[in-house]
Design goal:
By secondary structure, the chain is of the alpha+beta class. It has 16 helices and 45 strands. The strands form 14 sheets. Strands 9, 10, 12, 13, 15, 16, 18 and 19 form an eight-stranded antiparallel β-sheet that branches. Strands 7, 8, 11, 14, 17 and 20 form a six-stranded antiparallel β-sheet that branches. It has a five-stranded parallel β-sheet with strand order 42-39-43-44-45, sandwiched between helices.
């Protein structure tokens, strides 16, 4: 539709045709800010308001629309201009929800979160569209019931190559998990019928001839995916003339097995075969929150009914619902359900676009550009400006914003890389507690390191949300009002009980603090504590120039040089001068101990990047590392094994062995949780992450029951994926140092605050 506003499609408006289809549409600066709402949520809510005084009728519908600012022209078209269209449409929605119309299917929204992820290979590999691969079928065998499976996301290649692919079909079969390897697509029960999808509806960007592109297929009505079954998601592609087409797909990280249950199916020459070499990369999404029967989805999503609570401040007692936007919108409405007339619309400015040139030694290993979702990439050799050839001299992961050359071997070629990308930003949404008015403070526009640049709210204002703002994918809201100092409101008693119990387990630490004695802490674990990288000769030597080193932990991982340069540097006495940073959680613990006692804390960092809790060096249970830990004479061992062993069934017993050994050395133990990563990071399956964190807690409880002296920080306190207020960040921006499994400085403040509370007391 070329014109602005809202218009009717089914005319005339008469009593025999009250269910008029409405298209909600506004153009502001060339950007579509409201999406089509088919015969469903929008008109249902209008009809609901129109029936408040009696039976439904078309004149009542028209009167309702006109009463909310619409005008009717001589052709029967309803109009509004620019922002007024969005505001009036949202007022109708907010009133329909807030007047208690629970019978409407659209009165509550839903959101989709990843239930399982098989991430793309780090080398960016994919199966190319070359006429060979006729269809693909990832296989998902859930470890737990997925109550409301909502989407399949995968990564397709070559869609824009001539002749271009314009349409897809998806169907889903259910088979017994025990029989999946002998059950090619078409076997079992059809639980999701063959469904058409336009390419433009599943892709985030226009179809590209060579790139791998993210494609999301919504699966309304698929229902529950049950543990014990396997689900075969079959994807077909078609040209504009209706002919079937081959297409490529991204490779996932290799897994232990190699059968169809692990790798998926591919159709070649009309025959289905198990995928070879590398599995299909894909993600299964589940719907959380109240279900929504409208396939287009609401403009506003109510995340959780329990997210609504009374918030009390001087001069104000208001019910603030927890709302979240869907479908890439860039505005949010907070409404007071006790006053249906009061609706506030807050708009967030669209981040800008940047073009950047970086000089990088392109090599076999991935190097991070400064942004994700890059485009218009050009590469020239730095020495003479000669253009380099994509696919031969370099490969770009456009979504992750990485560049590498799998053909480089051990060498590299220094190149100038120029690209264009959209900036991102964090805003702070706040409320004036005296007037109830909402305000917004915009942060700095950045690339991958945006999580390090959170704005502050003005003094005296109530912090409602941190708002992650993107140019193309709308906004993410992180509720901040649910937490105070990292503790969920209403869970203070639970936190206090945990804190008192953990302090009671560390009598020697507390005694030395009261006496003002020197306290030695030995760090045991992986790169999250090492904060750098170590050669084999440095594994068993505490501290050293490569640990707590920003030029190793942060540089080359997409973190801006200006941020790296802003970090204070410290001299650790290793002969290299002031080259070290103090952003790890250990430094927050040290500061807390020294602030509330006369003790001096000495740190012996023996964490090693890439290590696990195994018995082969640099594994924490290896003889070499255990001897090094013992030699420190530590009063406290701060451990964090697990990030490199997520899903490993041996982790619990390995941690039991480690904690017993450390207690035998005479020191007490605090074990840190496995931090949460982005959806595309280390954690492929949240159930594995939860299980591994629980394994660590059970190990701590086991050894503490035997010997005492073992405390722990649980994941649920700080990085629950459904409640990220303690971190203050959207999940997609976690682990700023490489966007895989290394928390950045802002995250370390949050982790360090909970850890430090053990020393300070709640």
């Amino acid at each position: 539709m070329a014109e602005n506003g809202i218009r009717t499609i089914n005319l005339p408006l008469d009593d025999s045709n009250p269910a008029v289809e409405v298209i909600v549409h506004a153009q502001i600066g060339g950007q579509q800010t409201l999406r089509r709402q088919s015969l469903g949520i929008f008109i249902a809510r209008v009809l609901a308001l129109a029936t408040e005084g009696g039976g439904a009728s078309a004149p009542a519908v028209l009167a309702t629309l006109l009463a909310h600012g619409f005008t009717l022209d001589s052709n029967g078209n309803l109009h509004l201009t620019e922002v007024e269209a969005g505001l009036a449409a949202e007022i109708i929605r907010a009133k329909a929800v807030d007047t208690g119309l629970s019978t409407l299917a659209a009165a509550q929204g839903r959101r989709i979160r990843p239930a399982f992820t098989r991430p793309r290979r780090e080398n960016g590999g994919f199966y190319v569209r070359d006429g060979t691969f006729e269809a693909w079928a990832p296989v998902f065998a859930p470890a737990r019931d997925i109550p409301d499976a909502a989407s399949l996301t995968t990564f397709l290649q070559g869609l824009g190559a001539a002749p271009a692919i314009t349409r897809f079909q998806l169907q889903v079969y259910q088979v017994a998990a025990s029989a999946v390897d002998s059950s090619p697509p078409g076997s079992g029960a059809l639980v999701y019928p063959l469904t058409d999808y336009a390419a433009a509806d599943v892709l985030e960007d226009p179809a590209h001839p060579t790139r791998v592109q993210r494609a999301t297929f919504l699966t309304p009505g698929l229902g529950t995916l049950t543990a014990g079954s396997a689900y075969v998601f079959v994807v077909y592609a078609f040209l504009a003339n209706g002919s079937p087409s081959s297409f490529g797909i991204a490779q996932g990280e290799p897994v232990a097995g190699s059968s169809p249950r692990d790798y998926g199916w591919v159709r070649v020459g009309s025959n289905w075969n198990g995928v070879q070499n590398s599995p299909i990369a894909y993600e299964i999404g589940e719907s959380v929150g109240a279900p929504d029967s409208n396939l287009d989805g609401p403009l506003i999503e109510r995340v959780s009914a329990v997210g609504q609570q009374k918030l009390h401040w001087p001069g104000l007692s208001a019910l603030i619902p927890e709302l979240r936007l869907d479908h890439g919108r860039s505005s949010v409405i907070l409404a007071d359900p006790t006053n249906a007339q009061r609706v506030q619309l807050v708009s967030f400015g669209r981040p800008g676009t940047v073009t950047r040139t970086m000089t990088l030694p392109i090599q076999a290993g991935r190097l991070a550009l400064g942004h994700e979702y890059v485009r218009n990439v050009s590469v020239v050799r730095n020495s003479d400006g000669a253009p380099r050839t994509e696919g031969t001299d370099y490969v770009v992961d456009y979504a992750a914003g990485d560049i590498f050359n799998p053909n480089a071997g051990s060498g590299n070629v220094v190149c100038r890389v120029t690209y264009t990308a959209d900036q991102t930003r964090y805003d702070a949404l706040w409320m004036n507690p005296q007037t109830g008015e909402l305000g917004n403070t915009a942060g700095s526009e950045r690339g991958k390191d945006v999580a390090e640049y959170l704005p502050s709210v003005p003094p005296g204002m109530v912090h409602l949300y941190n708002v992650y703002v993107t140019a193309a994918n709308g906004i993410d809201l992180v509720p901040m009002y649910e937490h105070r100092d990292g503790v969920r409101v209403g869970a203070e008693g639970e936190f206090l009980a945990w804190n008192r119990e953990m302090r009671a387990r560390l009598p020697n630490l507390l005694r030395k603090m009261r006496a003002g004695e020197t306290i030695t802490i030995c760090q045991v674990g992986d790169s999250i504590q090492a904060q750098g990288g170590q050669t084999q000769a440095q594994w068993t030597v505490a501290n050293g120039p490569s640990r707590d080193n920003p030029n190793i932990y942060l540089a080359g991982n997409g973190v801006g040089q200006d941020f790296i340069d802003s970090l204070p540097r410290y001299d650790h006495g290793d002969g290299d001068g002031p080259i070290h940073m103090h952003i790890g959680w250990i430094w927050h613990l040290k500061a807390a101990i020294e602030a509330c006692s006369n003790s001096t804390v000495i740190i012996k960092n023996l964490a090693v990047g890439g290590s696990d809790a195994g018995q082969v060096a640099p594994g924490c249970n290896s003889p070499e590392m255990l001897a090094a830990y013992q030699a420190t004479g530590a009063d406290l061992f701060l451990t964090n094994p697990g990030m490199n062993a997520i899903g490993n069934p041996a982790l619990e017993l390995q941690c039991v062995s480690l904690f017993r050994q450390l207690r035998g050395f005479g020191g007490e133990v605090i074990d840190m949780m496995i931090p949460l990563t982005p959806q595309v990071g280390q954690i492929a399956d949240l159930s594995d992450w939860w299980d591994s964190n629980n394994d660590k807690v059970r190990a701590a409880e086991c050894v503490n029951d035997e010997t005492g002296g073992v405390a722990y920080v649980p994941a649920g306190l700080i990085c629950n994926p459904d409640s990220l207020g303690p971190l203050g960040l959207a999940r997609s921006t976690l682990c700023v140092a490489g966007k895989k499994n290394h928390p950045g400085a802002r995250e370390m403040v949050a982790y360090g605050r909970i850890l430090a509370s053990i020393a300070k007391g709640a």
